[in-house]
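During the no-cost extension, the postdoctoral fellow (Dr. R.K.) reprocessed legacy sequence entries with the updated structure-token encoder. One reprocessed record is reproduced below for audit purposes.
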Amino acid sequence: MRIARFTTGDEPSYGVVTGEVDQFGQPADDSVIVALAGDPLYVGIKLLEQEHKLADVRLLAPTLPRSKVVGIGRNYRAHAAELGNEVPDEPLMFIKPNTSVVGPGDPISYPAQTSELHFEGELAIVIGRICRDVPPEKATDVIHGYTIGNDVTARDLQRKDGQFTRAKGFDSFCPLGPWIETDLDPQTFADGVSIQTYLNGDLKQDGSTKDLIFDIPTLVAHVTSVMTLLPGDVILTGTPEGVGPMEIGDEVEVSIAGIGTLTNKVAQR
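Re-encoded structure tokens follow.
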């Protein structure tokens, strides 16, 4: 099931995207979105007798994290190597504030404090309920679904600060979307799902989730051993090799097979 958050110009609503999809999770041109009675994390899946053509609505970030986005650094060996970093012995966590979240089509703001703004296409886990100390074998019990993230990073500030908060925490530095896919399980990604990032149509990242160092159950267990996660919170699982700079006016597309494509343009802040 593909759960989206959308607007027709009025208050944001939730809905289920219906219709056929291609191998990359892209919906057919005649797809529709059937409205839901409210946030499915709180009221469940309650369909209304109201639908819109998908082409007639504006998609928003599919989740609004109640408290945080937890990023995982250096979770692909080739990406760690391309930046000259060692692979960590355990998942390397950092926090992106929930104010960094934007949706598909929203601009990524290029702040004046940086001159080296990078894209990082990633698989994102959406948490479905309050959870703490979740063992790996119970991870699926707390996962609502999966979406696509772009862990936008001011690389020069990351090197300067020696930690990640400022470099990854600006407003708009966490695009998410286009929707949440609920009919996938961690083994899908362990077997290998394609993650590709395009910059102005040119392929820059071409990775697979089978290369994750720490798999999804391990990440959920590790994060929840440290902090409580709330419904709608997000775990970014790390990025494959091929990260690179974006400039004002560039368009970035992150595609994950079975989910879809997240597209954003870079604009001056």
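Residues 68-268 form a domain with the Fumarylacetoacetate hydrolase; domain 2 fold (CATH 3.90.850.10). The chain has a mean pLDDT of 95. The remaining legacy entries will be reprocessed before the final report is submitted.
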